[in-house]
Amino acid sequence: MASSWNLEDGYGQDVMTAARLRARDQGSTEAGLGELLWALTAVRSPVQRHLIDLGFDDEYSNLRSRASSRPHEAGPAVPPTNELRRVLALAQAESHAVGGERVEASDLLLGLLRHEGGRALLSRADGSLSALSVAVTRPSPFGVRLGQAAREGRVRPALNRDGVIDRLVQILSLRSRNNPVLIGEAGVGRRAVLNGLARRLAAGEAPPRLLDRELVLIDWHELITDRSTDFEGRLRVIFEKAATASSVLLCVHNADRYLDLHPRSEPGSVASVFWSLIARGDLQVILTMPPDVYRRHAARGSILDSHCRPIPVPELSVAETRAVLLGVRDTYEEHHGVTFGSGVLSAVAELADRFITDRHLPAKAIGLLDEVGAARRMKAPADEGTPPVGLDDVIATIADLTGIPAAEITLAEEPEPARPKPSRSPTRLPHAPASTALLIGTGAYDDPALPDIPAVANNLADLADVLASAFDPARVHRHLDPSITDLPRIAEAAESATDTLLVYFAGHGFVESDGDLYLGLKATELPRRKHSALPYDRLRDLVRDSPARNRVVVLDCCYAGRAVGTLAEYGDPTGQLDIAGTYILAATSPTRRAHAPEGERHSAFTGALVSLLRQGIDNGEELIRVAHLFPHLRTALVARGLPAPQQRGTDTVGDLALAWNPRV
């Protein structure tokens, strides 16, 4: 048994030998949890004193001298019960988490604390089991032990992140490409998701193969500030030791800041060692990084794409942020000596969302809560107990932070109650692993007669960003300034979608004498556009041939409305039989030009679309359905004197959602 759990010489072996002898002397055929606890109390070791302090000394004192006098007495091996085997596995995980080469007595005690039966046995103690856990836990050379912190109750729940954590657990359980990448902007709560995973593992709410894993977060601050060792050398040691400790699940937060994600890392570098260990399956990690970094490094076939799977972490809505603020209210009230009413928390969430634009929810709302608490405490008389924070305090703090006049900082008017909505088919987001978004745009043209459209590049970048909450970012493909030779690659991506395919095009559009719509490419020549541009029919064929159940086409070009009338299947002379499961949204009517105002970031239509997906719909549903985009886009564009968009859809594809509604 010693070799099975690598007890070897030391306190761990002494304790297990004493437990087996105790079981034998009691006439038992197996050693169980009671014998282990007795041995931990009886055998001299660093944890013995802690158990004595908790009151176990009185119960086992008459047995201690006997055990300590013969910890290695020979005798027939008494095997462990299944429960004790489980505790030994958990003890091995504890040893791995601290880079230990053998199981110590403290690891055995922590294994008991992690086991339900062991906790029940220890619950007779007079003191706190959390305090006991803290007292005997050894520091990890890898970083912060999130799993241990969760077991000790020192980790807050991750509110409104169940779906993300579910996906995280699922990827970690896979046989291959089982390294998740949490993708989100700074402040959206990627670290909170890691905490949520730690709590779930601590509660035993995960597949059995994950319950022995110890979640450890690399402490970048400690690595950087420790001048006694070389940063890269120590990082290499962490990766190599974690690879030998099979129980360690390493979290690499903000991986892009400290690791070279380039596919051709210099041989022998820390990055090459890191990816080599992952490729061999010796090291399993959870990475976090911003969306733009992931898109830059996760091209198909890249090292990141080959070994990792992305999980978008979208920004929380105002309503979700309120729930987060409720969860942290006690902490900030105690810190500042003030009180926050629930109405104030709602105001903090809403006003942070509207007036603090350089960060993301929920972090910017939590930061504002902290600022408001500090400002209110400073204004309060020294002898005032716990002053309440009011709306005026929130507005004054935002005015100080942003320079916006306080008179302009107001809460939105309360909307009228929504009318009951008619029953519809279930609204849902695309199934990310089986969905693809193709964002195609031509902004630069070789022919001087065709003016460039600088906004197209921004259209593609910002659409990719807003679609990250609905699509796997690795399956959002941007094709800027494509040529006709790129079509096979685009078609291949379309063929990979079995749930939802979204195809977007922005650029010049042309109508020829045959009435057909043509889409401008980089090499398109205006006099010969019919033969050098992309016929829309070819794009239509690409959509029609995709196995996707839902197909969404968005066109932002002149005369885009021509495509609305060409949705029919081939072989239908009446043109009445539409391609099943398809929805098309066009920027203009068949006879009008699209607009890209000079100096603006986006073209007019795509700018309105991006704004709608980002800012949401007042008094709307939780998800923004495709069919709900059109009326709001039409209102916004017509109000500016721009062409009204066009739409056409079949079946219930209009019930498909493209984003969460942040205003709900």
UniProtKB/TrEMBL annotation:
<feature type="domain" description="ClpA/ClpB AAA lid">
    <location>
        <begin position="317"/>
        <end position="384"/>
    </location>
</feature>
<dbReference type="GO" id="GO:0016887">
    <property type="term" value="F:ATP hydrolysis activity"/>
</dbReference>
<keyword id="KW-0067">ATP-binding</keyword>
<feature type="domain" description="Peptidase C14 caspase">
    <location>
        <begin position="436"/>
        <end position="627"/>
    </location>
</feature>
<dbReference type="GO" id="GO:0004197">
    <property type="term" value="F:cysteine-type endopeptidase activity"/>
</dbReference>
<dbReference type="InterPro" id="IPR036628">
    <property type="entry name" value="Clp_N_dom_sf"/>
</dbReference>
<keyword id="KW-0547">Nucleotide-binding</keyword>
<dbReference type="GO" id="GO:0006508">
    <property type="term" value="P:proteolysis"/>
</dbReference>
<dbReference type="InterPro" id="IPR029030">
    <property type="entry name" value="Caspase-like_dom_sf"/>
</dbReference>
<dbReference type="InterPro" id="IPR050130">
    <property type="entry name" value="ClpA_ClpB"/>
</dbReference>
<dbReference type="GO" id="GO:0034605">
    <property type="term" value="P:cellular response to heat"/>
</dbReference>
<dbReference type="GO" id="GO:0005524">
    <property type="term" value="F:ATP binding"/>
</dbReference>
<keyword id="KW-0645">Protease</keyword>
<keyword id="KW-0378">Hydrolase</keyword>
<protein>
    <submittedName>
        <fullName>ATP-dependent Clp protease ATP-binding subunit ClpC</fullName>
    </submittedName>
</protein>
<dbReference type="Pfam" id="PF00656">
    <property type="entry name" value="Peptidase_C14"/>
</dbReference>
<dbReference type="InterPro" id="IPR041546">
    <property type="entry name" value="ClpA/ClpB_AAA_lid"/>
</dbReference>
<dbReference type="Pfam" id="PF17871">
    <property type="entry name" value="AAA_lid_9"/>
</dbReference>
<dbReference type="InterPro" id="IPR027417">
    <property type="entry name" value="P-loop_NTPase"/>
</dbReference>
<dbReference type="InterPro" id="IPR011600">
    <property type="entry name" value="Pept_C14_caspase"/>
</dbReference>
<dbReference type="GO" id="GO:0005737">
    <property type="term" value="C:cytoplasm"/>
</dbReference>
